[in-house]
Amino acid sequence: MLGSVPADRSARGESAAPARPLRDADATRQRLLEAATAEFAVHGIAGARVDRIATAAQANKAQIYHYFGSKEGLFDAVLGAHANVATAEEYFDADDLPGTAGRLFDQFDSRPDLARLATWYRLERAGSERSIGPIMAANEAKIAAITLAQRQGSVTDTFPPDVLLGLVITLAMAWVTLPPEFENPANAHSTGQRREFVIESVRRLIAP
Amino acid sequence: MLGSVPADRSARGESAAPARPLRDADATRQRLLEAATAEFAVHGIAGARVDRIATAAQANKAQIYHYFGSKEGLFDAVLGAHANVATAEEYFDADDLPGTAGRLFDQFDSRPDLARLATWYRLERAGSERSIGPIMAANEAKIAAITLAQRQGSVTDTFPPDVLLGLVITLAMAWVTLPPEFENPANAHSTGQRREFVIESVRRLIAP
DNA sequence: AGCTGTCAACTGAACGGTTAGTTGATATGC
DNA sequence: GCATATCAACTAACCGTTCAGTTGACAGCT
Predict the structure, then answer these.
(1) For B93, left (φ over 0), alpha (ψ -120 to 50), or beta?
(2) According to the UniProt record, which residues make up the DNA-binding region (chains A, B) (predicted)?
(3) Which of B45, B123, B182 lies closest to A165 in CB terms?
(4) Which of A51, A54, A82, A97 matches a 20 to 30 Å C-alpha distance to B99?
(5) Out of A122, A123, A170, closest to residue B174 by CB
């Protein structure tokens, strides 16, 4: 469920993949990260309970401090572990921003916990200057690609490229971001419909 | 225990506005609500400290429980106190959705704490079914107005009216919602520019 | 006007439970 | 044998909540 795990054990000179030992630091780290992802997504940093994370990971509280130093350190590690998912270039195509928005929508739809995690981060750890470096670097490339698409005329230059990127992401997140009050329960829309609304919105935004 | 905070002081028969007595229940309630608004906006429910709120309000901790029953009761009271601001009809005009988005943007821009409060509510108190009733009722009226505007042709019917309302609100909140990573510091836009981007976005969304 | 009884606003201090973080001992793989 | 992964027990602080008691405001009585 989590991002690719390097599990860099080759440095220790192991040749082939050995049988899983009863004590596997990497596996424990991984279980802790997964349990912490779920706990932080639901309760945030202040509301998360270290004991619950340790229990859910079938590990011990002390290991959290051994591996991650502190509760906040664990949160940063969780965020970092999912950063590659968030910045994945493979979903981005400056020449097809509506399609990009659709794929982004699918991401948020399939992993709403990651969207919540990002929101908690924004609320609780703003200005901590942690782990947003790589994301900003990834955005630079995307903004450059949008600039190029604008020069070629396939995208309107009404909006600056960074604004356009922000708008696409915002619209893709719309139904995750929106408070529940604005969901009309009597007239709820299916996932497929909402996806189509997002795509159409972006299509209208970039029309020359 | 939780819902018993009507505080109808008119029963005491106060005639004109007298000099503020040293002990004024209404004033204390108000100070607590203001201090709680600031505290909850910054730290959320789990992160807020009842002691800090009491100190900031120059009141005693026990009074919070006397007036609001519990920490969560206080949060709900804070939300309720600001609900009228959020649902204010005077800013909404179905025949001028871009302008509406601009006015909404101004709201979020002038009171970012209220936007944070709403986000905390969504994350920490989702499904509590408290105090969202009036907001949903207010939305019903707005959705009906949009439906009418669509029938008159001044607004596209590409999107259902409730979706359109959600999109307008989402776009108006865009720069409050967006994580800091998507702010380009080297190329930051002024408030006036961002306001214009929001308006132009909605204009494009509703174009027939 | 002065005295007094009553009620509500207010307070300081504590309580019971919980929490993040620590430690030192034990078990395990190499 | 040695490094380290693991764990139960521990602690010191903290936090929401309660409570017994105090103080101020005001109405009624004389």
Answers:
(1) beta
(2) 49-68
(3) B182
(4) A97
(5) A170
B191 touches chain A (CB under 8 A): no
CATH of the domain at B192: 1.10.357.10
Q: Mark which residues 70-89 of A lie under 8 Å from B by CB.
A: none
CB–CB contacts below 8 A, A to B:
126
B149 belongs to a structural domain: yes
In a domain, A185, yes or no: yes
Q: Do A99 and A165 belong to one domain?
A: yes
Residue A3 forms part of a structural domain: no
Q: Which nucleotide is nearest to A12 (CA to C1')?
A: C30
Out of A42, A61, A81, a domain closes at A81
Are A191 and A109 in contact by the 8 Å Cβ rule? The answer is yes
Do A64 and B61 touch, CB atoms closer than 8 A?
Answer: no
**Nearest nucleotide by C1' from B47 CA?**
D15
- Give mean pLDDT, residues B72-80: 94
> Given this model, what pLDDT does residue A98 score?
97
Asked if A175's CB is within 8 angstroms of B162's CB, the reply is: no
**Residue B12 belongs to a domain:** no
Question: Are B47 and A124 inside 8 Å of each other by CB?
Answer: yes
State how far the Cα of B194 lies from the Cα of A95, in Å rounded to an integer.
Answer: 24
d(CA B37, CA B114): 8
A-chain residues within 8 Å CB-CB of B189? 160, 163
Contact A189 B163 (CB under 8 A): yes
Tens of pLDDT along chain A (208 residues) come to: 444 333 333 333 333 344 556 677 888 899 999 999 999 999 999 999 999 999 999 999 999 999 999 999 999 999 989 887 777 767 899 999 999 999 999 999 999 999 999 899 999 987 666 656 677 788 888 999 999 999 999 899 999 999 999 999 999 999 887 766 666 665 688 999 999 999 999 999 999 8
Query: Are B73 and B2 in contact, with CB atoms under 8 Å apart?
Result: yes
Q: DSSP string of B150-168?
A: HHHTSS-SSS-HHHHHHHH
A198 and A109 fall within a common domain: yes
Chain B contact for A155 (CB, 8 A cutoff): no
Domain end among A56, A81, A106: A81
Q: Tell me if A169 and B159 make a contact (CB, 8 A cut-off).
A: no
B53 and B130 in a single domain? The answer is: no
